[in-house]
Amino acid sequence: MPKVSVVVPVRDAEPHLDQCLGSIAAQTLPADDIELIVVDDSRNAGLDQATGEYVFFLDPRDWLAPTALEALVGIADRTGSGVVLPRTEIVESDRPRTAPGPSQTAAAVDVVASRVYRTYSTEKLYRSALLRDHNLRFPSAGPADPFTLEAYFLSPHVSVAGDQPYCFVRWREDNSLADLGPGNCLTNNTLLIELIEKYCHAKERRIPLLQGPVLGSTGVAALFGPRFLVQFEPDEQRDVFDHAHALLRRVWKPAYRREGTLGMHVLSSLVWQGDFDAVVEVSWMIRNKAPLPVLPADGRHRPTFVASTGTRVKDALTKDELAPYVQAQRERRKAAERRRRRLAMLAHPARLVQQFAGRRHA
């Protein structure tokens, strides 16, 4: 049995396919340990054919460093992780830059604490048994994000190969909202949010995971940005709004915001509050690059957006203005955790004695 099956879904990428396949042929992992599967734009078909202990999905426009598979397989063997992420660089006009996601080596870490959830791309090493045992499949249409996120959740832990770039991703625009299409975008984010609901029950773990599907550049709020009024017919606009409103009311609160632009924060808050007319108003403002009407802080209140309908959005802050508040929230959570631990110790004096005894012997 080969060690790793590399699945390459070919689709309109002939100019770059030679570089992609050449990088697989040049791997330092022995050739007998590599199974190459080239399929016609169907990763599920490639997954069905894979016989390796691990599976790696590689877009035909991208390529691997020579030691990539050897390094990833080695980490997976040592840690038992179900998913191993390679440090990835985006190549745009021959100038590489680090892709979103972790870039430091990490072994057997938690999905949320390690922030690996910031990258949903499929260029990762997956343990085949994990995919088979849970019958994980790629969506029939739209992005592969739900596949990756569910694999994260089902894995006992994940690892990161971050000592050097191992995967090189050619810059492309097909992850933009315009290229995804509004229908695929809404379906994709609905699936992501449903997975977060299913696998992540603690609020403090859910909040960071929800930032992308709600506030990201292809998140729910982005649907109502500058293209909302031209991408949807009037009757469709209301249907999309109602779907998004029900979705956000179920899992989101404006106070959960930790990132995202001011426009996305305002739009997500208005959708959450159910003010369709205000959403249309803000969409026009963003489309025409008009400044959003924000009342400045006055000592008692933080900056507040006020729509012509009267609906208000508190904490109408830019990303830079938001950062100190987020840091303060983190510090408060850490302080609360320290207090909780101290109270737990006081409730169990024997543990307190053991702790101090351990420090003395150390």
Class per helix and strand makeup: alpha/beta
CATH topology call of the largest domain = Spore Coat Polysaccharide Biosynthesis Protein SpsA, Chain A
Number of individual domains: 3
Q: Count every beta strand, where a strand is a DSSP E run of 2 or more residues.
A: 14
Low-confidence stretches: none
Annotated CATH homologous superfamily of the largest domain: Spore Coat Polysaccharide Biosynthesis Protein SpsA, Chain A
**Assigned CATH architecture of the largest domain:** Alpha-Beta Complex
Strand percentage, roughly? Answer: 5-15%
Distance between the termini: 48 Å
The number of helices is 14
Strand order of the largest sheet: 2-1-3-9-5-10-8
- The helix/strand order is EHEHEEHEEEEEHHEEHHHHHHHEEEHH
Shape: globular
Largest sheet: 7 strands, mixed
* CATH C-level class of the largest domain: Alpha Beta
Describe the structure.
Helix 1 links the parallel strand 1 and strand 2. The protein has helices spanning 14-25, 43-49, 68-79, 128-133, 145-154, 177-180, 182-199, 203-215, 228-231, 234-251, 262-273, 276-287, 319-347, 349-361; strands spanning 4-9, 34-39, 54-57, 63-64, 83-86, 88-92, 95-98, 106-109, 125-127, 158-161, 167-170, 294-295, 304-306, 312-313. The strands form three sheets. It has a seven-stranded mixed β-sheet with strand order 2-1-3-9-5-10-8, with helices on both faces. The protein is globular, with a radius of gyration of 23 Å. By secondary structure, it is α/β, with parallel strands linked by helices. The protein starts with a strand and ends with a helix. The chain has three domains: 4-170, Spore Coat Polysaccharide Biosynthesis Protein SpsA, Chain A; 182-317, no CATH class; 327-361, no CATH class. The mean pLDDT is 89.
